[in-house]
């Protein structure tokens, strides 16, 4: 049934392909990291937005083995795009991929019940596999007795005990894998099909029989997880602790990242300076400095925040807490029509909507996933902060209200809250008006708590950073070039007095759109700033500096802030803030949505609804402010 | 407890008398054994009945499995965390309506 490209391989080969399959939380990725170390490559599978993680290792025999880390699953019956990849890869039907010659089924030795059924499913596929009983040290510590010989006979596959985090059992695993690869011709026929409920029951009964036969319950079962959960899943205390954790995370994201961001910012500014002074003045220099270097810099500056955020997310995931967070948040998210799993993507969107949207892949249901993608940019990303800081600094008096609260801080908080509330409202409307009807089931395993393994966390962090840089880079670079072209051409005429951008396509477009924006209190300079600001939100700050011709290169915000205060009314400034809460001022986000949904429909929907909301919000803000005398 | 959770298409007064109820109606700390898993939760589901049944089975909710309700959410005591044999699983009460449990007498 499955095309088996490996079957024709010559008997003596020096490379082999294997794939890792297993339940979520089985330590599969830890095993992958232990096997391949730094020799990993992360990309996408052809045509789908599922992460493809492959690594290479050299077996003791000298043979090179390519290892594919497949997304975790409970069965081969695929429900999410990730699980489709796992199923097709196992069946050898994945487009653009050679079928693996052997599989490693990774099992948490302390939690065998569900994985045994998966192993029985793998057996039907007929592809040879090794069952790796991972985290075997924990099983031993608990006094769990597993009759490996017997299990091997019952499952009909070789079994190895491993401790991925201590690299124990890896030589034995490789030895068994190589033995399977060498005898590949012995693999059976594929008789797998989607099991019916009755067949799942039968498979489960068989797994249960094997389990009872081969596994003696632990003498010292884990009681810690239950005790920790009594606190962390306590209906009230659990939510308070979760909020506390999120607060600490945010503090860390914004305070720890500042020094690194300043260095990156300064580094790129110096690089632009260097380019401008060393290269002859001209179009090419402008392109390199203002188009390419500035463009890359404006994205990389968020890397420290994204890394810190990912670091926390990895800690929460590896420790087992993330599933608890989804449990605690499910009702609140569900009330807005979102899935409990949407929590993590929305959280990431506070740093940047791009990694947030990329991480919606964990959501099985297509409508749930699209809803999450559509509202993710409403979360206040850090690119809005420079804009908010500039406007708040210029227009909101630095005074204390109610004795303790800073008025400026309060406005900032209001903008954040506005983003969150509107995201919940928009998803509520999407799920009640447009996609009415049934709710996707929420079901997830709450894994045993474990200490995160530092090496593992760092390797995964590095992998995610690389994904962000390469993917964001590939989307952002061409957009940056586009915005540079729009803001550079045509040149100002001879003897022009205004800043060059006024004469460019962007400038003309801004002036053309200005009458449209007048009802929300925007002058033409504000409108012009919005166009290059499409490259990245914070670019608008630099453009305002340029159109008002202050500060030269980087625009001293101090000077700009005083100038804005004299040029704009308070109502216009508030309207600009309201606009920025909602407006899709970020082409890279739209590019990522196109990529993730594989269609222009969703970026278009996102653009239209966000512009609409922004216009309405700015209109109301402006007119209310004018009516209150702030015009 | 909300009525909607208790009544499923498979609701059977005779079973109710013998201590069999759906998991949706279970309170904190209640223990029992699963006697039946169907795809009918009694609420509108995004997935077909057979699909829901298969997903429940794959998470270990099978006839004969021991069940204990470990935790409840704050709002409407939903979702719930249950021990199924020796696995901890979180699910909403609406899906729990598809699982009939013979609870231990208290």
Give a written overview of the molecule.
The complex is a heterodimer of chains A (631) and B (106). With 631 residues, chain A is α/β, with parallel strands linked by helices. Among the domains of chain A are: 217 residues, 3-Layer(aba) Sandwich (Rossmann fold); 153 residues, no CATH class. Chain A has a 7-stranded mixed beta sheet, with helices on both faces. In chain A, helix 15 packs antiparallel against helix 17 and helix 16 crosses helix 22. Chain A starts with 14 loop residues before the first strand and ends with a helix. The relative contact order of chain A is 0.08. With 106 residues, chain B is an alpha+beta fold. Chain B has one domain: Ferrous iron transport protein A (FeoA) (SH3 type barrels, Roll), CATH 2.30.30. Chain B is built from 4 helices and 6 strands, in the order ααββαβββαβ. At the A-B interface, helix 3, helix 7, helix 8, helix 12 and strand 12 of A face helix 3, strand 3 and strand 5 of B.
Structural topology:
The complex is a heterodimer of chains A (631) and B (106).
Chain A: E1 15-22, H1 28-36, E2 40-44, E3 51-58, E4 64-69, H2 81-91, E5 102-108, H3 113-125, E6 129-134, H4 136-141, E7 145-146, H5 148-155, E8 159-161, H6 170-182, H7 197-214, E9 215-216, H8 224-232, H9 237-278, H10 283-300, H11 303-319, H12 321-335, H13 343-348, H14 353-358, H15 366-375, H16 384-395, E10 400-401, E11 405-406, H17 407-434, E12 443-445, H18 454-488, H19 505-517, H20 524-530, H21 539-547, H22 557-567, H23 570-582, H24 587-597, H25 601-627
Parallel strand pairs in A: 1-4, 1-5, 5-6, 6-8
Antiparallel strand pairs in A: 2-3, 3-4, 7-9, 10-11
Chain B: H1 3-6, H2 13-17, E1 20-22, E2 31-37, H3 49-58, E3 66-72, E4 80-84, E5 87-91, H4 93-96, E6 99-103
Antiparallel strand pairs in B: 1-6, 2-3, 2-6, 3-4, 4-5
